[in-house]
Amino acid sequence: MAAAGEPEVIRDKAAMRAWSRRRRAEGKTVVLVPTMGFLHEGHLSLVSAAANASAGAPVAVVVSIYVNPSQFAPTEDLATYPSDLSGDLRKLASTGAVHAVFNPPDLYVRGTSGSGGAAVSGSCLQEAAGGHETWIRVERLEVGLCGSSRPVFFRGVATVNLLPTLFPGAYSSRTRFVAKLFNVVELDVAVFGKKDYQQWRLICRMVRDLDFAIEIIGSEIVREADGLAMSSRNVHLSREEREKALSVSTSLVNARTAALKNSNSASQHMKNQIVQTLSEAGGGVDYVEIVEQESLVSVHTIDRPVVICIAAWFGKVRLIDSIEIHLGS
Asked: What is the distance, to the nearest Å, from the Cα of residue 165 to the centroid of all Cα atoms in its chain?
């Protein structure tokens, strides 16, 4: 049992379902904040949004802490992804708004190897017989953006989440993860940050297309005082790399200012300017895209609501950021 004011920590899937059903029987709205842990103020802003998600009606807020291995490619930073569960629990308890933390050891059914019968670990893309075979694809939205450079990412998201059109395949792992998470938690509302804009839109589309009775809330990006988008990966930036990384938010703000001053701006010219800014700062550009906010389709002219999405490397750290542009605002 958790002490007074501390969230209950739940590790078993059946126990998580039972907890949510009890809260719903009490007339409460179950609100989920999915995270990968190593929490910062950006995550806590999602908790605040969750606590206020039901227009004054009683809510039961659950935060999931789970690093989904299926959304990491073999060359990515699963092994070094930062973790501090005890610190996370203290931060969540300090909000006074979190009722439960779902921290499962694994959400996946692992297959066994054909020879020794040992459980298969690591990427779900590599599972052997008896492992997961079911995936969720949000086919158009998962193409492009992160889907192009991280081809396993969104499949693991949708099946725990989903969004792959600008970068094909990247979000299929995440979509599977989110769908599984939604089924286990049996929630009413989920809160996602807009920093990973493609993921948020992909999950919205998955929920719509599969008729999940869930409301998805997109929460605005929380930034450091100097403009850097908060991220658990920022801890791996050296002082010099962090200074260079400020070029991401600076280029986004400058691009939005230019677009609002000059309607019908050419998107390719703006993308070229952003790439130049990032490159001159020492960043390795993964992508810069200007797309429609809902469809994530690339635009040639900024004459409608769009979002600029960036992914760039600084040292060994891959950072993502985005900014919405609403003409006339």
From this structure: 16
- Spell out the alpha helix ranges (H) of the chain: 13-25, 41-51, 85-95, 146-149, 153-158, 176-185, 197-209, 239-261, 267-280
Q: Which residue in the list 43, 99, 132, 236 is annotated as catalytic?
A: 43
Q: What is each CA distance from 301 to 117, 170, 269, 270, 285, in whole angstroms?
A: 56, 26, 10, 10, 22
Q: Pick the closest to residue 170 from 140, 203, 145, 206 (CA basis).
A: 145
Active site residue 236: no
Closest CA to 132 of 112, 153, 111: 111
Strand 317-325 relative to strand 306-314, pairing: antiparallel
Task: Record the pTM.
Answer: 0.83
80-118 residue pLDDT tens: 788 999 999 999 999 999 999 999 998 876 665 444 444
SS3 78: coil
